[in-house]
TrEMBL record:
Catalytic reaction annotation: heme b + 2 H(+) = protoporphyrin IX + Fe(2+)
EC number: 1.11.1.-
Descriptive protein name: Deferrochelatase
PROSITE patterns for the chain: DYP_PEROXIDASE, TAT
Cofactor(s) required for function per UniProt: heme b
Class in the EC hierarchy, top level: oxidoreductase
UniProt keyword list: Heme, Iron, Lyase, Metal-binding, Oxidoreductase, Peroxidase, Signal
Pfam hit, one: Dyp_perox_N
Subcellular compartments: Cell envelope
Entry function: Involved in the recovery of exogenous heme iron. Extracts iron from heme while preserving the protoporphyrin ring intact.
Organism of this sequence: Streptomyces racemochromogenes
Principal location class: other
Record's cofactor remark: Binds 1 heme b (iron(II)-protoporphyrin IX) group non-covalently per subunit.
Family that this chain belongs to: Belongs to the DyP-type peroxidase family.
Amino acid sequence: MTDSTTASTPDIEISRRRLLGTVGAAGAVGLALGATGGALVHSAATDPSPGAPGAAGSLSSLGATAVAFEGDHQAGITTPLQAKGHVLAFDLAPGAGRTEAAALMRRWSDTARRLMAGQTAPTEDSGIALDAGPSSLTVTFGFGHSFFERTGLTARRPAALDPLPDFSSDRLDAQRSNGDLWVQIGANDGLVAFHALRALQKDAGEAARVRWQMNGFNRSPGATASPMTARNLMGQIDGTGNPKPADPDFDKRIFVPAAGPGPAGHAWMGGGSYAVVRRIRMLLDDWDKQSQAQQEQVIGRKKSDGAPLSGGGETTPLALDKLGPDGKPVIPSNAHARISAPAQNGGAAMLRRPFSFHDGIAPDGTPDAGLLFICWQADPLRGFVPVQRKLDRGDALSAFIRHESSGLYAVPPGPRAGEYVGQRLLEG
């Protein structure tokens, strides 16, 4: 099919705006995500139930929700998990440098700003998402280590972006790792997410080419009777110990302080964060051969509700010193929950915001499935690295997973009105 519909066609632009305006007239509601100045979420729903159909001629509450592009931090970090996601990296084309990178980031930011507001793309629009609202679409941009060499900005590359160390359990595919530019797309509708992916790919033009792309999913909003922590493809509740925006030290752990650290030339990262991205394949056939009791010993938590084996509910703190009748720790010494606990890692913490993936069945009949692990922190040397080092040395879960790709990206702060992402770096 050809893209025969363009953003300059009046009835297309009016159609989406009319749809949004119809539900907006019912009374828009703004909800701030935590106390961190994160993205503002607008919901034009009159029916409070998640995903409930709207009145005739209006969008459902699920489709009408929009996330602001501007803000102290980029959207897609503290934004609630979306049902669909695309994660991809680009390399700048041979000969492209700082000028081309700045023009590309300006185009990408313009497109993301419009699509996240439920509008059509600024250039030729494929028409994929014409009938939908923004559906909580977020687009997040980051820069890899190699980006700074390609653009002549190595003096402004922060030390926190130094390459991650090697881990003994890594089985990394270099072609699916790293990259000059990183893009994360999330939405609660698959067509809206793909529409953004397609628009950004076309915007890249001659300036950059896709290095790798991965597609993910999560449980859809409203699929459970009440909101709950997501499960991964092993069936485990995943994300219980995540830092919360209401925590007094949340900003300190997740976002780079405005005043540093580092020389003044690195101030462009103030309010930004660092994303570690890992494609972790789960050896599901091996996992499924374990009894539920064995799986719980590996994780250190109950499969039914995520409660620690030491007792209580999902959010009950781990009682790491509790012993069983046999005199052994109730939470095994090599349990994943024990080894990754902040208390076992000098308080190291990161905000995990993953997607699951399934890329078909391998020739040997095993599912190519697992976790697109994405974690956020103010400094990966104090967040991801120390935790992964400990997991690498003795995590019982290591026998059932395989780290197949990896990337680390500096994610600048959110743009101001009229600004593009990374402008403070590229024009500073």
